[in-house]
Amino acid sequence: MPRITFHPLGATVEAPSGLELRDAAKRAGIELDFPCGGQGTCGRCAARVLSGRLDVIETAISADTVPDEGSILACRAKIGDEDAVVEVREQPDLSAGQFIDEEEEASFIPPGWQEQPTDQGALVSTYLIDVPPPQEGEGASDLERLYTSLRRNPEEPAFDYSLHALRELAGALRCRNGKAMAAAGRFGERRRLVHLEAGGDLRSLYGIAVDLGTTTVAVNLVSIPENRIIASRTEYNGQVVCGLDIISRINYAGRPERLEELRLRALKTINGLIGQLAAAVAPARNRIYGCALSGNTTMIHLLLGMNPEYIRLAPYTPTVLDVPPLRAGDIGLDIHPEGPVFISPAVGSYVGGDITAGLLCTGSAFTSDEICLFMDIGTNGEIVLGNGDFLMACACSAGPAFEGGGIGNGMRAAGGAIDRVQIDRETGQATYRTIGDLPPRGICGSGMLSLLAGLFTGGWLDASGRFKRPSSSSFIDFKGRLGIYTVVPWEKNAITVTERDIENLIRAKAALYAACGLLTKQAGIGFQNIAKVFIAGGFGRYLDIEDAVTIGLLPDIPRDRFHYLGNASLKGSTMILLSEEHRRLQQGFVKRMTYVELNTDSEYMDQYTGALFLPHTDRRQFPSLKNRLAD
Question: Fewer Cβ atoms within 10 A, N terminus or C terminus of the chain?
């Protein structure tokens, strides 16, 4: 078989002819970045053949995809019939991310719970039991005597029993004269005994809440008896190298082995975070008895190994919206294998359980008379509009621009990313801030947003997102028809933003604003009728409201109506883990929510077209900008 050597790492692997280059790299232990899911549209997997020959599957969809002559795309090439040496880009950096404030998350307690009794219908519960010893001639089994001790109230739900618990039963009842601890999980309407041990401590009961995001995964370790988050951890989703957004992941999952790869990557990320939490706080993993997990519809399909293909194909039908109760061992979660896993129900193909969980963080907003708007801003923008009388939801594909994708010098919100920019109105020069105060390596979504707002209000950009010609700024240059702005003017590896990058961001903001506009129009209201706007999501946490209004991402309404929620999916999952009341409230949201499918609504395209300008074709929607724009 041909031997393929990858530079600059020097890794060598034997690979059969016809194997795709990206799979050969994986065999060599090299992670290549495929933000577009391997469709040949982003150019991030560009490589150069130094010797030998590879078979190119097809040329790039766009000539701009391949950065320079002589390069190929690793996702569009196969191993030939001879040895080859290939130079590839460095592995993607998934460290030093700008994640949630873990101390803030760890201090979060759902409001009003502090003085409530310990058991509020948590997903898992523990019981101290005292089972009388068997009597001669009685004839009752250990299980029958246990059942009598557990179910003292005949109105309580019946118990089921795991084989794991049955195997522990005889020893547990005889070790300390029948005094034992039982741990039970709620599986729908029934409780299931998952663990039994002699003696025991009611305090040693833990659960985890998980937000399985497209870009990041976050986990809370929760003490059930104390209703308290013990610790939180967040990492980039291990799937990001296989595609930045949902559609890219679905495309990547087109073959069974790639679907399995995506499943294992998500699972590895979650289990890695569980391991970090267990090491930091020191509970045994088999003391973590349950999990509440929320994610968008595609992420749940990928975690469970279900084919997501039909989510993106008309009539956009997922395999499941409300996942039946599962065991941790069924999924592969590294907690007690018999523990229940509650997965937040979705509403539609693109409005998932992360949104129905996130709504719980708005308090009584969506059960009151006031009309409220919920926005989860990320690669997939989800919108909910309503109050106690009605709920409408939709989702739009904003694309990866908010996460730094689709931007030439874009990057995720990691160490060295430019996350804030100010533009001098006289010279057009940028001053910037980087995450971690590290040397600038690229620009992330929040940096792009503030850059765009500054260039527009400073008069350097017109409403279409094009640099005004001619330009008096030495930081604006033109190569043919393409305008280029220099953020960091290094002689080598300067950080620049092009009109094409700006166009990608305008498309992303237009998708979100148009979705909001469509829902308000269908509800027969204007933006001024909205009492509160809740902003969720990792990107939303670092969003500057003024900048967002300036470019037309958010509506121009009084600023005190905007409220940040942070990672609402994670917080909502914590509520679900701890409370039956919140699980019922979430189900209530699902049942009364009308899902609006934008893919089949012609009015959405009209809204979208109008929003493809700064801030909008109808400036009357943004009256506060009148005195802020340069002449």
Answer: C
Percent of the chain with pLDDT over 90: 60
pLDDT of residue 96: 46
The rounded distance, in Å, linking the Cα atoms of 127 and 182 is 5
pLDDT tens per residue across span 164-215: 999 999 999 998 888 998 889 999 888 899 998 888 776 778 999 999 999 8
Listed residue (212, 191, 146, 205) closest to 336, CA to CA: 205
* Alpha helices (H) along 321-372: 328-331, 353-358
* 3-class SS of residue 625: helix
Q: Closest by alpha carbon to 234, among 99, 373, 96? A: 99
Radius of gyration of the chain measured on its C-alpha atoms = 27
Helix (H, G, I), strand (E, B) or coil at 402: helix
Q: What percent of the chain has pLDDT over 70?
A: 91
- C-alpha span between 447 and 409 (Å, rounded): 11
> What does pLDDT average to over the chain?
88
Supply the DSSP symbol for 314.
T
* Confidence label for 515 from pLDDT (cuts 50, 70 and 90): very high
* Lookup: tokens for 397: 């594909």
Mean pLDDT throughout 584-596? Answer: 96
Tell me which residue has tokens 């097809």: 58
Q: Where are the beta strands (DSSP E) in 81-215?
A: 84-88, 124-130, 159-161, 179-187, 190-198, 206-212
How many CB atoms within 10 Å of residue 103?
Answer: 9
Cα torsion angle, 367, 373, 378, 379, sign:
positive
Q: How far is CA 56 from the centre of its chain?
A: 34
Q: H-helix or E-strand containing 271?
A: helix 256-281
Q: What distance in Å separates the CA atoms of residue 588 and residue 211, rounded to the nearest whole number? A: 21
Task: Return the SS3 of 77.
Answer: strand
In angstroms, the first-to-last Cα distance of the chain is 67
Q: Is the dihedral of CA 260, 263, 266, 271 positive or negative?
A: negative
Q: What is the Cα–Cα distance from 586 to 584, expressed in whole angstroms? A: 5
555: left (phi over 0), alpha (psi -120 to 50) or beta: beta
The runs of H, that is alpha helices, within 428-475 are: 445-457
Residue 5: what are its φ and ψ, rounded to 5°?
-110, 135
Determine how β-strand 326-327 pairs with β-strand 288-295.
unpaired
CB-CB contact of 397 with 247 (8 Å): yes
Mean pLDDT of 278-291: 85
φ and ψ at residue 248, rounded to 5 degrees: -60, -40
pTM of the predicted model as reported, rounded to 2 decimal places: 0.86
Among 392, 379, 358, 354, smallest CA distance to 250 is for 379
Q: Residue 287, SS3?
A: helix
Can you name the residues that pair with 393 across neighbouring β-strands? 384, 595
- Which tokens sit at 306? 């279900």
Question: Is residue 419 very low, low, confident or very high in pLDDT (cuts 50, 70, 90)?
Answer: very high
207 forms bridges with which residues in the sheet?
222, 290
